[in-house]
Design brief:
This protein is an alpha+beta fold and about 210 residues long. The chain is built from six helices and eight strands; from the N terminus they run αβααββαβββββαα. About 35% of the residues lie in helices and about 30% in strands. Strands 1, 2, 3, 4, 5, 6, 7 and 8 form an eight-stranded mixed beta sheet that branches.
Length: about 210
């Protein structure tokens, strides 16, 4: 099982892409966006948070994972893979719902692996206290041995774009808003073409 996921990860890594953002915020990897030099320590601080976010999720560590969010003012919006259709969006502003959701995922799946586009697209406001951070993600996990989904799938795969709003409070950066723009099956197929059948056939194999 571990070997199969390692193979998938190697293939996935070849397809990671960068995400474009708007022009109203300053891009950190541009040395002089809008005529201003952006401090590299901000870029580093945000990347540390993103690494903890990924580490907490992959290690199924609720404490580490939840430590990257501000509880006050938190907001999550997931489009459920239907861009442009707001009727089925999942939205909440209680940080406890995010903790409950993460706990359910960690209890249901094992061997969670995530691949993120790097570096993330980061844009700062003029006060250097609020940032828009975008990346592309691919994530997969497996159910415990002996269990399966419908159609005998023993694994789970998802792909999409994240847009995080970071805020700096008391010299610390954390995520305060998260917009999850998931891909539907057709979009994943278009994005990956030959990759998707490999993923599905691998995830369907019983262990």
């Amino acid at each position: 099982m571990v070997r199969r996921f390692a193979i998938i990860n190697s293939v996935i890594a070849l397809f990671v892409c960068f995400i474009a953002c708007g022009d109203d915020l300053k891009k950190l990897d541009d040395p002089e966006p809008h005529g201003h030099t952006v401090p590299t320590e901000v870029f580093s601080a945000i990347n540390i948070v993103m690494n903890k976010w990924q580490e907490g999720y992959e290690n199924e560590d609720v404490e580490t994972y939840m430590g990257v969010f501000w509880s006050q003012g938190f907001r999550y919006v997931g489009d459920m893979g239907t861009e442009g259709d707001k009727t089925d969006d999942l939205e909440f502003d209680d940080i406890r719902e995010e903790q409950d959701a993460a706990t359910r995922v960690f209890n249901q799946f094992q061997d969670i692996t995530m691949v993120l586009s790097t570096p993330p697209e980061i844009y700062l406001d003029m006060n250097l206290t609020r940032a828009e951070v975008r990346n592309h993600y691919r994530i997969q996990g497996s159910v415990p041995v002996g269990e399966s989904f419908q159609n005998e799938y023993t694994g789970w795969f998802a792909e999409g774009d994240n847009m995080f709003i970071f805020e700096k409070r008391d010299d610390e950066w954390r995520i305060v808003e998260w917009y999850d723009e998931a891909y539907n099956v057709q979009e994943i197929q278009i994005e990956n073409d030959e990759l998707l059948p490999i993923i599905w056939s691998t995830l369907k194999q019983t262990r």
